[in-house]
Amino acid sequence: xxxxxxxxxxxxxxxxxxxxxxxxxxxxxxxxxxxxxxxxxxxxxxxxxxxxxxxxxxxxxxxxxxxxxxxxxxxxxxxxxxxxxxxxxxxxxxxxxxxxxxxxxxxxxxxxxxxxxxxxxxxxxxxxxxxxxxxxxxxxxxxxxxxxxxxxxxxxxxxxxxxxxxxxxxxxxxxxxxxxxxxxxxxxxxxxxxxxxxxxxxxxxxxxxxxxxxxxxxxxxxxxxxxxxxxxxxxxxxxxxxxxxxxxxxxxxxxxxxxxxxxxxxxxxxxxxxxxxxxxxxxxxxxxxxxxxxxxxxxxxxxxxxxxxxxxxxxxxxxxxxxxxxxxxxxxxxxxxxxxxxxxxxxxxxxxxxxxxxxxxxxxxxxxxxxxxxxxxxxxxxxxxxxxxxxxxxxxxxxxxxxxxxxxxxxxxxxxxxxxxxxxxxxxxxxxxxxxxxxxxxxxxxxxxxxxxxxxxxx
Length: 459
Fold this sequence. Notes:
This protein is α+β, with helices and mostly antiparallel strands. The chain has helices at residues 15-32, 67-72, 79-95, 159-176, 211-229, 241-247, 251-263, 280-285, 311-323, 338-345, 347-365, 388-405, 430-446; strands at residues 36-41, 49-56, 59-66, 101-103, 109-114, 128-137, 142-151, 192-194, 235-237, 267-269, 275-278, 328-336, 370-375, 378-384, 414-421, 452-454.
């Protein structure tokens, strides 16, 4: 991400030597944080700037620094804390996902890609210029071309601070509804301009004076980024300094909020004390979506087999979801060896086996979706706003829970499960989805039972 344009200090030694010292210091600080520089080039001959592509593996971001800033870097002590914080923030964001992926208080997940260099060709006023930004709403894959005013000149902030400012200014604009997203492929003739309002122009309430706000933010981040986007139980970073600035809080406030959420059972600690995972309680109880609508359906705890919604109700609910253009996943569950329970132990034992299987499924699904009686020893689960990967993770947990519940008593009862979701199924209809889920379940049954298969079968 940003462009530096500062002449606060002027080196008296050879300019080329000073530039090389600045380049070396920048790269060294990045390496100290475990970041790799994949590209370092001067792509615009008419401009004295250097472009850097940095990060780890496939998780990368970019920044453009001017020769004047790099030359000043070694001798300008005030730049060093800014560079250190930038490197730590990017390293942390790389460890827990894309450095350009941000969660907003409004529930949106956005990718913020800064387009370098700063457009100084546009009309400038008061040492300010426009920085183009591409913003993608990840869940809908809609985009917005924006431009935000940034400061230039001697008294401008260090470019590393500009990155943080721009990212959080975009987030606040998303929260305010000031950015209009359009379908990918729709041509936007002009940038949506976001004027420079100053850091406190929106009058946000400090998180330290409203602890529940910080907790809500982290819980939403764990649910949306860690569950809805990347799959079941992926960890997110609780101590992101850019999040702290966005909330007008401190990293300590974020860590305290994370500790409270852990105590409430909504999140669990990840691989480090600064990482959190959406716990089953948070996933099961649901979390508001970006439009404020409930993510989950009904609570079916303690439901009897005879009380489950019917196959006809399932078909009706599925058509309703598809008519609303919402994403959905289907999970069909067929109990293995159930007939042996009935034939060997009798119908009363068979009824108990079915109830224990239902209890096992509900223990996993809870309020994430709705369980239906498909018929006989078959059940269906409707999971709204689930991707194939998320449904697969849920189905695998269902399979394990049924197997470990010993539903058949002395007889081993397991489950063959089929999964299909609209994210991998173009032109979905209720009939085509049901047929595909049934085919996937049949494949599980014929491939040895006690397994999960997803559509398309080749995958």
